[in-house]
């Protein structure tokens, strides 16, 4: 059984830990608001980009001359997986859930005889997959030095992906990130970037425009080719923003849970300390009384 001094030291240690977790929870809450606003502000632009691409893609009649970013290379032998995680831990299962989705997808592709290449955006993702898929990780991008997510970083990653695609280093590119739902809910998501994922439309937008006819300058193919390249960076930027909000939400929840667990541990240790102290006092009183009666 631990001594009273050991119990006091442990209680003080847990109290210090609780102060740290509480402070991290407050910092995450402050960062979450800004990150959530940025993620929510980027969603309409990304959705509208998908709609414009869908409309232009339907106007392309000759698939043979269409951009490979839209129709693909005609094969799917080499897959590029862009995994977005945090560069720091202490955020619950945020990093683990994304890495798990990538691991399942990669194993499925390898079982089908495909070749897999991984770009790890964020240090924790690469560490999580280092043992099983370390040989498949071709590049690591550390985001720990960035205080705010900017489009410049997304464009830099997008340019690397485009350069690899133009060099024929892969056929299909898929991005993995965590979509922010709420503080307590973040959904690991896979989004295909190349060939571009064109969402299905129900025709409601077309009917709302009546019988309007649009003329494009330059031609639809030129506009589509530009937007497809732009869409790579746009979707990567959206993924980075969603990840930033999800990370802070997960860290806030994890630190709140850690703070509550520390409080429960302090209460339990305090009860144990009081009981042991009371038992020791009672024992000393019995010894004093027994000694007095003996005299």
From TrEMBL:
It is a peripheral membrane protein. It is found in: Cell membrane; Membrane. Pfam families: ATP-synt. Its main location: membrane. Keywords: ATP synthesis, Cell membrane, CF(1), Hydrogen ion transport, Ion transport, Membrane, Transport. NCBIfam families: ATPsyn_F1gamma (TIGR01146), PRK05621.1-4 (NF004146). Belongs to the ATPase gamma chain family. Produces ATP from ADP in the presence of a proton gradient across the membrane. The gamma chain is believed to be important in regulating ATPase activity and the flow of protons through the CF(0) complex. F-type ATPases have 2 components, CF(1) - the catalytic core - and CF(0) - the membrane proton channel. CF(1) has five subunits: alpha(3), beta(3), gamma(1), delta(1), epsilon(1). CF(0) has three main subunits: a, b and c. This is ATP synthase gamma chain. The lineage of its organism: Bacteria, Pseudomonadati, Pseudomonadota, Alphaproteobacteria, Hyphomicrobiales.
């Amino acid at each position: 059984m631990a001594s009273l001094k050991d119990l006091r030291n442990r209680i003080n240690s847990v109290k210090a830990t609780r102060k740290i977790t509480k402070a991290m929870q407050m910092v995450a809450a402050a960062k979450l608001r800004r990150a959530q606003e940025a993620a929510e502000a980027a969603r309409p632009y990304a959705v509208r980009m998908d709609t414009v691409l869908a409309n232009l893609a339907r106007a392309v009649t000759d698939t043979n001359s269409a951009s490979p970013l839209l129709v693909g290379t005609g094969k799917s032998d080499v897959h590029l997986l862009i995994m977005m995680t945090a560069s720091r831990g202490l955020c619950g299962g945020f990093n683990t859930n994304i890495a798990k989705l990538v691991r399942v997808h990669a194993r499925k592709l390898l079982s089908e005889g495909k070749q897999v290449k991984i770009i790890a955006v964020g240090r924790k993702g690469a560490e999580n997959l280092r043992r099983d898929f370390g040989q498949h990780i071709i590049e690591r991008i550390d985001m720990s030095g960035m205080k705010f997510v900017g489009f410049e970083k997304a464009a830099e990653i997008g340019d690397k992906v485009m350069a690899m695609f133009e060099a024929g280093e892969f056929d299909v590119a898929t991005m993995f990130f965590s979509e922010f739902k709420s503080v307590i809910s973040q959904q690991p998501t896979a989004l295909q970037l190349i060939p571009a994922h064109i969402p299905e439309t129900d025709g409601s937008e077309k009917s709302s425009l009546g019988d309007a006819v649009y003329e494009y300058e330059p031609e639809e193919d030129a506009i589509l080719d530009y937007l497809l390249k732009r869409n790579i960076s746009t979707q990567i930027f959206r993924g980075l923003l969603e990840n930033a909000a999800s990370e802070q939400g997960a860290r806030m929840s994890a630190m709140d849970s850690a703070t509550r667990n520390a409080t429960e541990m302090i209460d339990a240790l305090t009860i144990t300390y009081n009981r042991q102290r009371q038992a020791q006092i009672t024992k000393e009183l019995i010894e004093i009384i027994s000694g007095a009666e003996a005299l």
